């Protein structure tokens, strides 16, 4: 692949790492891809963090328009890579062209949306409480508040979104939008894709005349570089999308620092889907087809993949199972992201199939190599409740149907669930009473509640929550997709009786930026 | 004291604890106060948390107006206690009547302000992204977002604000406003005051017809009850104001849970005060008098007490020191909150005075019993930078002046500081350039920057931040005073394609609550 050097990005520099090298691998062919990516050293981590720290004050002091321009420039540069980006990503991930072109669009849209958010200035939460010099018994001072960035942010790319949740994905976009420099640890499954995007960001930094430390990109085998990055005292927050074990390991490092820092780890979720009796009576075959389409989408490699179905026994459910088995039987096997993920998926399916009282209800077409073969299993609510291991995510196109003897068991199953990213409900008019009873419980368990659809397809929007109670994420107060994600990297600062000339523009009395502000609470 | 029973409040019940008893003590007289407060058992903690969990869904489902009414009813009931509350608090804390009457006013104002916040509904951050069925390449679903409470909250009362940061103080008010039931662990220094306020809250729960578990109040000696409370799986967040060791201990418990939860611990701060050369040249004696008034206010027992002064050598600084020593010499000793706090203060002053290169620059009138004697010490910037122990908070009316050889040393001293609640700057026109250079650093170190005043006196306002980087607090993204404090106990939930009839009122299309909402980001 021309133009790939295998080097690290440390601010404005490109240097070759000195650690153990990683390579991209084509999961469809098993072929090793050039170049080699020698890993960063601890000194490289140090340097990237030092530069990020130096860049923080000048970067956050930029006018909002300049910060927004930078995000848009990144988007333009990513598009400017052209088809080489799609081809390299296809080779490294096994994902089809259409999916990756869509993901590139999503990545670019995300950067542009955050540029809009920055320009609009609402994220600053500017507040002005004017002085009340005559207030009794004591005068009130002038108080003004704005949000500022937390400081340099460490971002860990995800394997399953090589563009939209990787080097210039949602975490990076929202951190930069918040005024925080970013040090990315690239995911080892797509180093070439990471390098191409890293170059686009590094160029944008230079083109916009920003301090070089606004962005660095490190490669590294194993976990040492990631841990060192999170442990560095200059890093003030962490964005991560990946496995539960990976997220919890970083959380532990962050909590063990002399100064603990927030970790936003989006980890694992089985995304319960409730098939209510009215909906099943009305349209079981249609729901079954839609379910199979959702569970097999992208080889099931989505955080929001529907891994758990919950329904009440009856004719409607029988019809659903029949329809799902039928649809799944013609589901083609799909190449998974890496050999390791394909292996883990196969083991997870075997484990589910071998669990007590679990039966196979449907299977996709046979797979070979690094492909995944879709699978649907079935278990009684009673057996599910007795075996917490059945809640473990099997990352891929597999789902478990929990059959409840009566509607009351829906509550018991939901109550037993850990925190999740999403829950979906398939409902008809007759189900309203049942749904109303379930909603308070669902709200406590998940970040997003979906009606008559599935969680796959996460809109980049203002009202999106891609988050949820632990262990779906490490911090339920936030989202990693959508404009609210910027709040993760901000903290409030209050200014008391600050001379007008010293006030930042967003807090000056005349409101020169014309941003929305809360004045005396209104 | 008539009307005090020494019992716990477990939901609607009053029961006598079975653990080791605590008593109030009058720090002015050393007298033990009746009644005894036998501690809660682990079963009492269990029951309080169970009731809180049961109360959560019905409580948060209340119309906003009813939730606001409840907060106002608590305020009215606290006023309804009358002078018995002030007298008991005076006896238990040694604080003077005027201060406690003021603090009661603050407590009531705070509850009423959060009632306003609840009615205004802005805290719900309601967002609506309408469906775009014709969007290409795929339709956009209807997405709506609102904030909901995290769940039951554990609140730990503070010793130094027996009303405003105790049973019905800022943490409780903001958690209830967020729709979260509260289980309070009373501070052992003012159990009688806690009981009186607890009764006012319990009555408000009954009068408003709320589920009993919305509020419980536990007494307990030592740390077992507090730890058990934070460890209980039904508790979803913690509010704490107190020592660093206490806050860090609770943080450790919270992080070690199977489901980690946020801890908002406001711990310790020495609140640097920068005396800039222009200001000292202009009005050193005036600043010196104001400083002594601030550092001795309430025997120095404020989180925002000015414990560190930083200034550049010169005639102005000499004049300041002379003025401060003079003002301090006539500062009367004041009774401290507890014998333990008075002892720790005395030890802290001795430790400071004995530290290498630290000299005494001023001293208040001699103290006896549980009184604290004001103290001002002085040290060179070089010696300060060489000894991190000089940053340790001495809780009480003591401060350390750091003398810088030149202006550049101001930066070095600030850079060496840990996170703080506040920084204050005393400036004159000629200091503007210096201040501009210091501001970015200050913003990274503190939650509130004050001009020409001191941090004592924390307004309950919209633009207040009473928070700051670790270790001033355990979570710099928040504030424990002011309306923004409600955000600590909220998390977002997104609803996708939810049938109109099922939507909560705040998200219905017609906006029946007439609250501010973000529609398509605008």
From TrEMBL, chains A, B:
<dbReference type="InterPro" id="IPR016163">
    <property type="entry name" value="Ald_DH_C"/>
</dbReference>
<dbReference type="InterPro" id="IPR050740">
    <property type="entry name" value="Aldehyde_DH_Superfamily"/>
</dbReference>
<feature type="domain" description="Aldehyde dehydrogenase">
    <location>
        <begin position="20"/>
        <end position="411"/>
    </location>
</feature>
<dbReference type="InterPro" id="IPR016162">
    <property type="entry name" value="Ald_DH_N"/>
</dbReference>
<dbReference type="InterPro" id="IPR016161">
    <property type="entry name" value="Ald_DH/histidinol_DH"/>
</dbReference>
<dbReference type="InterPro" id="IPR015590">
    <property type="entry name" value="Aldehyde_DH_dom"/>
</dbReference>
<dbReference type="Pfam" id="PF00171">
    <property type="entry name" value="Aldedh"/>
</dbReference>
<keyword id="KW-0560">Oxidoreductase</keyword>
<dbReference type="InterPro" id="IPR044151">
    <property type="entry name" value="ALDH_KGSADH"/>
</dbReference>
<protein>
    <submittedName>
        <fullName>Aldehyde dehydrogenase (NADP(+))</fullName>
    </submittedName>
</protein>
């Amino acid at each position: 692949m021309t133009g790939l050097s295998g080097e690290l990005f440390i601010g404005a520099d490109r240097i070759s790492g000195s650690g153990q090298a990683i390579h991209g691998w084509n999961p469809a062919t098993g072929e090793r891809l050039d170049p080699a990516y020698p890993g960063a050293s601890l000194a490289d981590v140090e340097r990237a963090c030092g530069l990020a720290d130096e860049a923080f004050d000048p970067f956050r002091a930029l006018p909002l328009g300049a910060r927004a321009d930078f995000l848009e420039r990144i988007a333009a540069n990513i598009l400017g890579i052209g088809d080489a980006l799609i081809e390299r990503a296809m080779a490294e991930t096994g994902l089809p062209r259409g999916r990756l072109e869509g993901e590139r669009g999503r990545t670019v849209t995300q950067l542009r949306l955050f540029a809009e958010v920055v320009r609009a200035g609402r994220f600053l939460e500017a507040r002005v409480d004017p002085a009340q010099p005559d207030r009794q018994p004591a005068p009130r001072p002038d108080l003004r508040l704005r949000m500022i960035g937390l400081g340099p942010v460490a971002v860990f790319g995800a394997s399953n979104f090589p563009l939209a949740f990787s080097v210039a994905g949602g975490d990076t976009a929202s951190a930069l939008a918040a005024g925080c420099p970013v040090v990315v640890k690239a995911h080892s499954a797509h180093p070439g894709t990471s390098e191409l995007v890293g170059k686009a960001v590094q160029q944008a930094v230079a083109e916009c005349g920003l301090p070089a430390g606004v962005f660095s990109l490190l490669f590294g085998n194993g976990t040492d570089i990631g841990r060192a990055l999170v442990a560095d005292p200059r890093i003030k927050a962490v964005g991560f999308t990946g496995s539960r074990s990976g997220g919890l390991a970083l959380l532990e490092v962050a909590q063990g620092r002399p100064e603990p820092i927030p970790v936003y780890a989006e980890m694992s979720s089985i995304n319960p889907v409730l098939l209510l009796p009215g909906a099943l009576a009305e349209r079981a075959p249609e729901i079954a087809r839609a379910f199979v389409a959702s569970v097999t989408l992208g080889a099931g490699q989505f955080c929001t993949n529907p891994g758990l179905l919950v329904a009440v026994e009856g004719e409607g459910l029988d019809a659903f199972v029949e329809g799902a088995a039928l649809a799944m039987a013609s589901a083609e096997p799909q190449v998974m992201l890496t050999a390791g993920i394909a292996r883990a998926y196969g083991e997870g399916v075997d484990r589910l199939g071998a669990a007590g009282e679990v039966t196979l209800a449907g299977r996709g077409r046979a797979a070979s190599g690094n492909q995944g073969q879709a699978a649907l299993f079935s278990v009684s609510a009673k057996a599910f409740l007795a075996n917490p291991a059945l809640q473990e995510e099997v990352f891929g196109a597999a789902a478990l149907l929990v059959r409840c003897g009566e509607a009351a068991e829906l509550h018991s199953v939901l109550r037993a669930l850990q925190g999740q990213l999403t829950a979906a409900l398939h409902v008809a008019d007759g189900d309203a009473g049942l749904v109303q009873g379930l909603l308070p419980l669902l709200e406590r368990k998940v970040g997003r509640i979906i009606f008559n659809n599935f969680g796959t397809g996460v809109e980049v929007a203002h009202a999106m929550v891609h988050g949820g109670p632990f262990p779906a994420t490490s911090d339920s107060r936030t989202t990693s997709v959508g404009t609210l994600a910027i709040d993760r990297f901000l903290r409030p600062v209050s200014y008391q009786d600050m001379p007008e000339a010293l006030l930042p523009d967003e807090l000056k009395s005349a409101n020169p930026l014309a941003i929305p502000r809360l004045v005396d609470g209104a």
